[in-house]
Amino acid sequence: MQTTLDRPWTHRFEPGRDPEAPLLLLHGTGGDEADLLPLGRALSPGSALLSPRGPVSENGMPRFFRRLAEGVFDEADVRQRAEELAVFIAEARERYALAAPIAIGFSNGANIAAAVLLARPEALAGAALIRAMVPLSARQAEEERQQLAGKPVLLLSGAADPIVPAGNAAALARRLAAAGAAVEQETLPVGHGLTQADVALAQAWLRRIGKPSA
């Protein structure tokens, strides 16, 4: 079923057997609202799936926020889009009677999920961030301190990733931990693309935090 809420968020929603364990699926650059549905079903077959399309277009490719160059983000736009996504999540939760979701984000989708964790932590119950990098500067680090209050976060990085430097991914892990998140980071011997190893690790992480639904 494809619907659009009052805000400009084209999305897909698939009801699940367990409304207490929804997944928010956030695609990478060039993906759309259908892109990560198979991943969501594989990770947690009984979960409701909420999958929005990024509202920004870059040369015809959907994204969740603007960038100035590869790896250089428009931070004002990141903050605005994180706020808008948090509002979308709240509206979708009310419409579909959902608990706060766990975000499953890949690349650009992982970056906007990290931004929501830092800027609007109440919107998410946790997040699996696949190939994420620091989305926002640390100028508000004091305000972020302990705001995540033990929320589970999984970072899956690629040792051969040509887009996300290892130091940047490690900095994001430290930033989220400093904000109080229960962070687990795994670095795989892979590049930027999504792999079966990512799927297996995310499945195991969801089981550990008690969120999967069979």
Automatic annotation (TrEMBL):
Domain Phospholipase/carboxylesterase/thioesterase: residue ranges: 16-206
GO MF entries: hydrolase activity
Pfam families: Abhydrolase_2
Classification via Gene3D superfamilies: alpha/beta hydrolase
Superkingdom assignment: Bacteria
Record key words, sorted: Hydrolase
Cross-referenced SUPFAM superfamilies: alpha/beta-Hydrolases
Family membership: Belongs to the AB hydrolase superfamily. AB hydrolase 2 family.
Name of the protein in question: Hydrolase
Taxon lineage: Bacteria, Pseudomonadati, Pseudomonadota, Alphaproteobacteria, Hyphomicrobiales
